[in-house]
Each structure stands twice: as structure tokens, then as C-alpha cells.
Design brief:
The structure is a homotetramer. The first copy, chain A, is α+β, with helices and mostly antiparallel strands. The first copy, chain A, is built from 7 helices and 17 strands. In chain A, the strands form 5 sheets. The first copy, chain A, has a 5-stranded antiparallel β-sheet with strand order 1-2-3-7-4, with helices on one face. A 5-stranded antiparallel β-sheet of chain A has the order 10-9-11-15-12. In chain A, strand 16 and strand 17 form a beta hairpin.
Chain lengths: 347, 347, 347, 347
């Protein structure tokens, strides 16, 4: 078990180090004879791309996806869909001084302990660059699961939060600002905080909220492969993710059952939706919604004390480019992971 | 894919409806030639058992586990360990009036939609009774992963919370009270709240905190099968679970990177532990700690509006016994699931 | 990976040592709302049972299957079906002298090397008794895959072979004799050979041929999970199996392509069937047929030289009961394994 | 389940259509910090390559493998190893007349039925070209499992067979002739038969024998994932494979147990090896040996009757290039599959 695959029936396997030749993946289990919109896949990738706005890392990567198999005359063959994104930013000399140092709160140290050999250039496989392959997989999944719709947005950055529920927001405003927050006033404050943080060479965390609409009844298996369990695993597999909650979440723990129960309308929909669209591990047809917590990125452009391979502690200043806040770029990744989970239950 | 198994190398498969002949399971992948303490397994099961205190459901179940295979002359054979717990409480007539009704926030409705046939007596497979099999599996896992130690406790009930970190608590006090809260003053308040809630026929939620100590460096796979991802999935697979966070969790999203980074001591331990013992999906040798949110139980002993199979809404009063608060009984279940996840990476 | 499960979607996991408390299994992935004929399951088990005729081992086992879950009001719930067969023959003292000896061509030696601890009574897990659980699983699979029909028969014992193809035989005669050979004249010769062999305390091998009729087009996945690959694995997982071939088999290697190609009729059936009903790993709707080779049973009732745990060689005479020829009892096992493979592709 | 992966711990996933952009794969689970000889991988690929001798198809393919990830500074990282072989022979117009025709004994018909859309150019995914990716995976596996050694050779072509056991042959002569048969006299006859067959536009089948030496005791899991079961599945997953037998094989079914049992030497080796190195599903340290049957290739350069998508039968003459006998090229493929199976049990 080495865990570079997700899904049982709609399975994505990813490969690639951040500063190797390429990253990419294989989707096994995609239904055949489906027309794929490959431009839509590239657009999703562009939403995750470095350099897309002043808020995100200015690392230059073209991030163009090329498909190698599984598609013929514009339609899926039902065979594996292999794809590749070449790594064009080879400025790996930025990382030379990290060859013998373990950055705090990075994977450097545990990789060295576990594998005895690591690609120290930019984190190699532990780099969030790996998530580009997930976005490709998720973009294809999104097309397979239609009319199910997945919409994520930034609901907090540091201590600045949207104080409305998703039902009170106009989610179509999400992509109108660089933060990807549908509450445009709050978005401005978030943007300011990110830019200030960036100026200091520091980073800040936040929360992404995700909503899944038009879900058919019956997705999920009732014991270990519950829909919420697979969503939780998918989200916690994203770099920097620290938590997942769905429906009433942690707040719901403070409620009484008489407040929390979702009473039925006739024909099976419910009057409230504290359950978050899932009961007994299985979708009940209501909206699914959940929160995903992200810690502040560990890469700082400040001098930091690092552990060296000699067992000494040394202050080293990070170079290069980084995200002061991953939240805007996390939005398409959360959507992609959700799409992969849903597709795995739908195909 | 029907999802009644968890784990790849140390795999537990469970079976059984709450009012069928028996529940139980098979553990596949247990190492051979290990002396097993079967009394310790029964003791874990007793911690989950109905009727153990005035705080929990008074349903009568002996919950005695019988082992059918995999153990010979007191030691594991490396072959599948099958076990069984007979269902002795057959008062299924309590449920007759639920044959044609779907309780709010239960799995009744989605089971009927998905499977077209269900065991309506007590929820059948969707009953939390299934978790008894998990506790047996986890109790064996605990013995396999020694000296790794797993300790869970109740950290909130409704709005009453322990306001200290686990490091400030004497965790050995957890089992001294029926709530299983190591802060004995808070425990008393929690107990009072549970009893009051019970008197009203209502229920209340809460949070379990879990700590894993003596973890070797290197557990977890860095992409999709991260240690935290598998823990999240395991926890979200428990009935009534609404959320999971580890290390700094949702609070950590409000911090700056310069505050959140865990700086190294020489030799690889860290001065702080916001990371919660996991970096890049892999254990770093520090304590792992996480929170698990539970909603209030949906079964109320109050009249509630239910949907009937005829598509009408009717007010029906629940009968029988129930947990006003699952938290005390959730503690051994959380520990069991954590042990299963850790064992899967250690064997 | 410990390999006590077969199937991905229709998955059987088995447990149990031959002289432990019980053997049994769990079927995960059985469709819901299917009426099951449990008497038919017991009848299949009776076809595998010791003591059913003078040709097979006289070991006394009731072999009564009990179902513990997954069935309610006569229909499947879609939840795991757990079942159990108690071991009633506890004459394990027959095996005391084998505690410190490794029988030739048995698993005793490799089990000791691999697991360091073994249940020496009758082979424990390596005993062919484990196949009883497969027959139960297969008997349920047979009901799920209707109208697909699976018929196996003994086509050779030692050097005595049926010299006709399955299409030239009246397969309904198979169960009219104890050998389970539809060519009744040949069956008599086989019976004589088995009885003579038994008298000498010796054993003899043979071949089972299996035919699958009414197969829908499209079963099988074209690369690694080909229909023939999964059948081969299933057959080679039966104790004492030494080989598998399908369609034209080893004889077909001597043919030229111009002789071997199966030309189409209109609408897709073929004029010949050297392909054995499978092309490119996928069923083409024609009959599937294959041969399964079984070596002579290793347990002899003759004095044999064994290796002892002290590293010496000693002549020891086997006691107890044994099959002089497994072929008659292998017939229902081959059918069961085929049914499990087909079900896994059909559910 | 779509079955484009093999292995649990050392897992190869392949992709690619014969006339698409590229074929290739991902190896997940390769141990870290191992020096890889990539030239040795290319050499294995050259053994499978078209055009390598006058006996095989003259289709022109460079078959150069490029590695994209998982290797850094010459050593494995423990991360996925992705690789790619570009398809340089794009003469797909040879196949235009097959767009609407289903060739006899090819996968064309079942692909169309199952997937409703297919890449008709050269068989697409059903082409044996896919096996090039397996050879790359196997070549890496071979390096991981050292000192285990895997040697295959052609033991029959049509009716011409090597009549000696592998122990009586000088296996180092295998690669001295184009047929890959270590009995050089027989090899000449085989070569003649292949060339004659080719001249007629016909094809012929045969058998590959494979030997695995230096196997550690203990590989294989005793019930469903037996070593021989996984080998059988791996072999039957190769295009055109019709059968598998190991050790005494089909001939062994004619023996008596008293002849067939392998008696021990002191210390656990055996005097004979009818068991073929496997007992109870587990390697016993003796040589493993097995036979793999291949039917004659279905592609003929003769006029053949085909079924058209209109449901009519038409005589069409195949164009282009083909193998008159796959046996010489099957040798490295059999070795690769064996290496993948062994690696999966050893890592």
C-alpha cells in the first residue's frame, strides 16, 4: 500500500515530483462513450494555477495538460485516461540550501526518515504541486457526474469570516474576486489581510466551504465507506488540511436532538438540513455541504530555524516564491476531490 | 463495493443487524504468533456496553464476544480471526410501529430508497450496535500496536466544554466517572446535563478528544492514504459523527505561519505540536491528537412527526430505550477506530 | 494482504481452521431484495460433504450451514451475509503425532516457516475443509447470476479419461453416479480405480471440466482482470489444483490460426468455439468451458518419511480418514468458484 | 473495477491504445533508495520489440521508454514511477477497412458491445502492444526481487516440442537463437515452422516454460492469494494465453500420491519437485516452474470472413504486419508478469 490512488470504481492514480520532468495521472474506470470537454478541464487547472492573481504564488508554471490515452474522436473509450503536465519551472537551485536542512512543519524530516532518500527540490512529491493532477481528475469527474453540481468558496481567512450560511449567499459571485469569496465586502477584507501577510513574508490559514447540489438519493455505503467518510478522507488528503465537518458540524454538537432532527416534508425532502444531505452514510437528496480547514502554509520568506542533517539547528532564510494564503487556490482542489468522491459512487 | 471492511493490511470486516441472530466480524491480516489477552478484549466491549451506568441506554445486551478461529493455544495463527456477539435483546416488537414509518434524521428513509428492503427492527445494520464489532477489532489492534497507546475522553457535552488542552489534564482520571471526562468538575456538570436531557426524552451531542502516544516515525502514506486522512475516514464512519480535526484544527486556521510552525529540537522532536504529530501525511513521532464531533442522537422519546411509506406525515412517539448522549459510549469506539488505523500502517 | 477474500464487488471472505470451533464466511456486496433459497445452499454443501458416498473420505461432519445476518423475511438486505458451519468432528488426537512432523507435499513445513505457529490438527487453515465456505458463497452466487448456469463434471481420474467434448455428453447424467462423470461407462472404470487406489492407502489425481452457459456478452475487464484470468486465479486457489486451461487450451497451441479462428455467424455468435466463450478477456456470449487439473491428495494411509521439527527424517504412518481421490468432491467446489467469479462481474 | 492494475503492494497500472499518442504506466509501491539500472529496463523492452528478428512482426516501433517520476539521482524515491513509450508507427490507415468490421477471434466485437465506442486502429487497448508497459514494470520488479532469478523459454511451437525438462537443458542458450529455445536443434525446426507459416500468411501457437530460482520460503498467502493463483492470473492476463500449469501440471493428474509426494531432505528441501516449488499456496524454497499456453495469433494475412457493423458477413484481406508466432516475443512478457507477481509478495 503506497496510497497514490483514490477511488475504487472511478480511480485516480497520480505521479510526479514538483521539480521532476512532469506530474500527471491515470484515471481508471471512466465510463465509455462520453463526450469530454477538454477545454473545461484546462479551465479548472487554470483556477489552481500559480500566478493567476496577485494573491497567489508568482511561480511560473504553464500548467498545460496533455492527454495520452483513453479518448478517441472526442469521446471516452472506457480505457485508462492518462494525462501529463510538464514541469516548466526548473529553478531548483532555489532549493540547494535546503538539501541538508529540514524546514519546520514540512514533510522534509519525515520523508528522510521514512524513505532514506528524497527529492529536496521544492518538496518533491510532498509539494502541493501534486494537487494539479487531482484537479484534472476532478474536472473529468465533474463532467461524468452531471447534473450534480459542486461549488466551493473561501468562507474564512485568518480571523475574517463570512457570517452567513451558504443558503444566504449568492454563490455565483465567488469567481468575481481573487479570494473566491461570494461575500464581496468580506472578500475585500480578506484580500487586504492576505496582501499584508504576504508583505511580512508570513502566511495565514482559513476555511473553504463546499456545497454539492442535485445529489441523487442513495450515494454512499452504510458502514465504513459512508459518503461523509470518503469526503473526509479526500479532504484530509489535501496538503495543509486540518479538519473537516459537514452539515451542522462542530456547532451541531451543542444542540439538542429535538432541535437538530430534520423533519420530513412529504415525498422525502426535509424541512431543515442539519444532516447536511447525508443520513446513515447515504445521500438523502438534500444539499451536501461541508467545511474544510487549512492551516497557514509552512513556507515563510522569513529567517527560520531549521534542523540540519548533521543534527544542528541553523537559521536559514527561505527564498523564491510562495503562497501567503492557499485558500483561493484550494477552492478548485476541494471541488475536485469532492467530484472524485461522488464519481466513485456514481459510475 | 459495499464497504463493510476497513483497512488494507490489518482488515476488519463486520456483519450483523441489531435484531438479527448475531453481529461480529473477521480480522484478516493479524500477525501470527502473538499472545492475545482475550479478557482485555471483553473489557473494551464492556466499556461500550449498554446498561453500564445510569447515563447510557438501559437496553439489556450481554455483549459477550466468542472467538471462532485464528487463535490456537492462546496465540494468533496469522489466519482470519472470526468473532461473534449474539444478540440477546430480541424485544423487536418495540419497533413494530416503525415498520411503515421513517424516523427523522435516521437512515430508515435512505435505506428503503437504496435497498428496497430493510430490517426495520432497531435500524438493522444502521444501528450503532454494529460498532460493537469495531470495538472487538480495535481491542485486538491495540494489542498488536503496542507500545503505541490510545486514550480518548469526552471533552464536551452540549455547551459544557473542558477548557484545557490534553497536556494539562490528568488523563488517568477519565475512567473514574461515568461521563469519561478527565476534568472531574466539568464531568459533574456534563453528567447533570445528560440526566436532565434524558428526563425530557431529549438527546444532546458533544466532542470526543483522542490522543495517541509513543507513535513511531513514518506511519502514513504521503498522498491519498495520509495518516490524518485515514483517521478522518475512520472517525466519520462512526454513527452520528459530524466532524474531525487534528492538531491545531479549525482554530489553527486563524493563525499565522510564523506562529503555527513547529520548530525542531535537535534530533527531530518539535518544541510545539500544532501539527498534531503528523507532517506531510506521515507521523513525526510527536503525540497525535484529534477531536471528533458527535451530533445529538436522533432517537427521541418524544412524539415526533415521521414520514410513512404511504407518503403521509404522522406524529409517533418513540418507545424503548435510548442514549440521551452517546459521548460516554463513543469513547471506546473512537479508540478502537484509531487503533485499527494505526495497526493498518504498522503490521 | 492476507488473501482470505475473493472478489471486488461480490466479495467472499472465509475463516476457520479444520479443527477449530467453526468455519464460515462473510459475503459483502450481495444485491438487496433477492429471495434466497437456503435449502439449495445446503444441497450444494451436501455435494461437497465428507461421507456422501463410498468414494470419499468417511470423516463425519454434519456440515450444516447457519446464516447469521444479511437475510430478513427470506430476502437479502444488501448487507453482509455471515454464515457458519460448526466443526463437529473433533477427533484431533489423530493428529497428535503430526505435532512435530511435516508431512510430504503438505503445507505443514511452509506454514511453520512463515507463521512460526500453526494449528497442526488436520492442517488447520490449509485443510481443504476451508472450501466448504466457498461452496456456501458459490451457492448464493449461483442464485444471483441466474439464468447463467454452471455445470462441472469429472473428465479424468488418473489415466482414465472421457474422450468426448462436453458438447457430445449428456451432462444431466453427471449426478447419477458417485464419481460425477456424465459418461457412465467411463464413470464405472473411474470408480473402480478410485476404490482400488483407496484399498492401497494411496491416492490419485484427475481433471474437472466446467461449462458455463447463458453468459451475457461483456463480462470481464480487458487487461489484468480478464474473465479467464479471474477464473484461472479462482481455480488455482483450490487446494491440490495444478493447472487451468480454457477453450482450445494446451491442445490449441498446436493449431494454425486459420484452423483456430472462430468465424462469426450473423448477429455475433460464432461457428466454432475454440475461444471458449472469451475474446480479449471479455465474454462473447458463447459457452465458456475450461479444465482444472488436480494432483493426487498428499495424505496417504501408508507409512511415509516425514521431516520432524528436530530436523530428522522419520517414517510415520498416517491415521484417520482421507479422500483417495478428490475429484468427485471437487466438482461442486469448481462450480462455486466459477459462480463467485461470474457474480463479481455481474453485480 | 476496470482492471488496469496488477498487484497490491507493488502495483503496476498501465494505459494506452496501440495507435494513440503513447502507452505507459505507473508503478506504485516500489521501495525507496534502490539504485535502478535503466539500461537494463530498455534491454528487456528490446527483447519484446517488433522487428528484432526475421521471425517477428516487422512493424516499426522505436519502443524507447522515458521515465517521468519516482527516480532522483539514480535511485528510487519510493514515490510512483511513471513511464511512457511513444507510439511512433502511426500508419493507422491500414486499419481503415476494419472500422466497420469485426475480425474473427479478436476483441473487436466484444469491445463494441461493451463500450459502444472503440479505437479500431490496430485493436486499440486490446492490442498486445499494451504488454510493452508490463515489460517495463517487470524489468523494474526483476531488479527489486534480486537474487530471485526468472528465466523463460519457448518449449513448443505448434507440434514441435522440447522433450526435456528444464533441469536437463542449458538455459543460457535461450537467447542464442531467435526463437528463444535453449534446445538449439529443436530451435532450428521451430524457426523453420514459423517461417513457413509466415509465408502462408498463417500463424501458429506454442508454449512458454518459465523457471524461478532462488525463491525465499514463505511467498504467497494460503487461501485465495496463493502464489500459484496469482501467477495463473498474471499469465492468463496476457493476450492469446489459453492455459497455465505448474509443477507436475496436467500430467501430474495421472500419478498416484505415492509417486507424486515430494519427500524431504533434512533441513527442508525436497528430493523431487512435483510440487513446483509451492505447497499450500506458499513457496517452499525449491524452483518454481510452470507452462503457459498461447494460441495462434488471430490476425492472418489471408482473406477472412468478418462480421460487419451492418450485420453482414464479408470476406476481407488483412493488411500490414503481424507475428506469425508470438512465442519468441512472449518470453520477456512471461518473465515480466512473473516478476510482478513475485515482487508483490516480496516488497
Amino acid at each position: 500500500m503506497s496510497g497514490n490512488s483514490i477511488g475504487n470504481k472511478f480511480k485516480l492514480t497520480t505521479f510526479g515530483e514538483s521539480h521532476g520532468a512532469a506530474i500527471g495521472g491515470i484515471i481508471d474506470g471512466c465510463p465509455s462513450n462520453v463526450v469530454l470537454d477538454l477545454d473545461a478541464v484546462q479551465l479548472e487547472l487554470d483556477r489552481r494555477k500559480p500566478g493567476q492573481s496577485k494573491l497567489v504564488t508568482q511561480r511560473k508554471e504553464a500548467d498545460e495538460v496533455v492527454f495520452l490515452s483513453g479518448i478517441f474522436e472526442g469521446k471516452t473509450l472506457g480505457t485508462p485516461i492518462a494525462f501529463q503536465i510538464n514541469n516548466t519551472n526548473s529553478k531548483s537551485d532555489d532549493y540547494d540550501l535546503l538539501k541538508d536542512a529540514f524546514r519546520p512543519s514540512h514533510a522534509d524530516f519525515v520523508y528522510q526518515q521514512k524513505y532514506k532518500h528524497r527529492d529536496y527540490r521544492g518538496g518533491g512529491r510532498s509539494s502541493a504541486r501534486e494537487t494539479a493532477a487531482r484537479v484534472v481528475g476532478g474536472a473529468i469527474a465533474k463532467q461524468i457526474i452531471k447534473p450534480v453540481e459542486i461549488i466551493a468558496y473561501v468562507s474564512s481567512v485568518g480571523s475574517i469570516s463570512v457570517n452567513k450560511k451558504y443558503t444566504e449567499l449568492n454563490l455565483s459571485l465567488t469567481e468575481t474576486n481573487d479570494v473566491r469569496c461570494p461575500d464581496v465586502e468580506i472578500a475585500q477584507k480578506m484580500e487586504q489581510l492576505i496582501l499584508e501577510t504576504k508583505k511580512k513574508g508570513d502566511t495565514v490559514g482559513g476555511v473553504v466551504t463546499c456545497v454539492i447540489k442535485n445529489v441523487p438519493i442513495g450515494l454512499g455505503e452504510p458502514v465504513f465507506d459512508r459518503l461523509e467518510a470518503n469526503l473526509a478522507k479526500a479532504m484530509l488528503s489535501i496538503n495543509a488540511c486540518k479538519g473537516f465537518s459537514f452539515g451542522s458540524g462542530f456547532e451541531g454538537t451543542k444542540m439538542f436532538g429535538s432541535q437538530h432532527n430534520d423533519y420530513f416534508n412529504e415525498y422525502g425532502s426535509t424541512k431543515t438540513n442539519f444532516s447536511g444531505g447525508i443520513q446513515g452514510g447515504i445521500s438523502n437528496g438534500m444539499d451536501i455541504y461541508f467545511d474544510v480547514a487549512f492551516k497557514p502554509v509552512a513556507t515563510l520568506l522569513q529567517p527560520q530555524e531549521m534542523l540540519t542533517t548533521n543534527g544542528t539547528l541553523e537559521v536559514i532564510k527561505g527564498k523564491g516564491r510562495h503562497d501567503a494564503c492557499v485558500l483561493p487556490r484550494a477552492v478548485p482542489i476541494v471541488e475536485a476531490m469532492a467530484a472524485l468522491v461522488i464519481a466513485d459512487f456514481m459510475v
